[in-house]
Amino acid sequence: MASRTPSSIQRIITPSIFLAFLLNQVTIGLYAQNPPQQRPWIDAWRDATVAIGTPKKTLPKDSTEKETEYFHVLGTGVVFRIPGSPYPWLISAKHVLVNPNLPDPKLIRIRFAWFEDRRIDEYLGVAVPLFGPDGKDLRVVHPTADLAAIPLVISQEDAGRKDSIGVAESDFANEDETYVGASTMILGYPGAIERQFWTKAIARAGIISWLSSKDPKAPILIDGTVTYGHSGGPAFRTPLATDKFGNFVPTRTAFLGIVSQLRYQKMFALVNDEQFPITAPNGQQVMFPSLMAIGVLEPAANVKELLRLVQEYLKSK
User: Fold this and answer.
1) What is the rounded distance in angstroms from the CA atom of residue 4 to the CA atom of residue 220?
2) Residues with Cβ < 8 Å from 213, sequence gap 6 or more?
3) What is the span of the domain harbouring residue 43?
4) Which has more pLDDT, 170 or 9?
5) Does 248 map to a domain?
6) pTM given for the model
7) Integer Cα distance of 224 and 239 in angstroms
8) Residue 127 pLDDT
9) Is residue 230's pLDDT more than 50?
10) Domain for residue 94, yes or no?
11) 281 in a domain, yes or no?
């Protein structure tokens, strides 16, 4: 398959200055099109977070049940606005978008959050082709990170709304906003929960557990209960918290990165204070992913690199 790789408020401030500062923080980037005065702040992020999936048939329990189709979640994606592009782009984990085991290797389907009133068995999402009419691969792939992008060339009718959505680079967290202990939130469509909750992204809170002090492109670890289906979803700083020195300051919501992996933990049986591994019939040790709530992020710096590759791709057309 062909793919393309071509920054503390330490002084006392008056209430009026504080208010002006706070309002300034929430009227940029993502909030410019979705004013928090009118909507909950998380809604703009939820709107930019989509479920990636495919139609799947149910298995009837008996002869009285009919076989039906439903939207089966494969992962999560984030819509981005890219300067110079006439349409938004969907970015997800590479292992979600570039997956040889996709049921239909030519397209994926996505569901937007504003279709939450439609059950997954009555609305199967919008089809997004992975290849153009000429057969060329439309995906732009990061050469080293677990990231890939695909253009969202869909009609307003299929999208279900006229106003544009998407994360902008002005929403990306800077160095001062990214530190160990910072409060985070992740959005995604974990398949472990019941299907009735697959209609819009599930929010889960956590903190940054580890990051490199020297390499902004190194993976970030978050303690945020990441499970299957979160892959490709966004992680972001939550507003109104503290800076990295512990001062309480007004902070904006800022994009940290894309969920890439979860971490497993081995399970042992304890007998007379001795540990024995639990093994499957084939001899392999059993792993319990739910016991370790650590997730791995592809940081915003790598997402920026992918956005540059998309821009290069657009210029070459």
Assistant:
1) 25
2) none
3) 15-265+289-316
4) 170
5) yes
6) 0.78
7) 17
8) 92
9) yes
10) yes
11) no
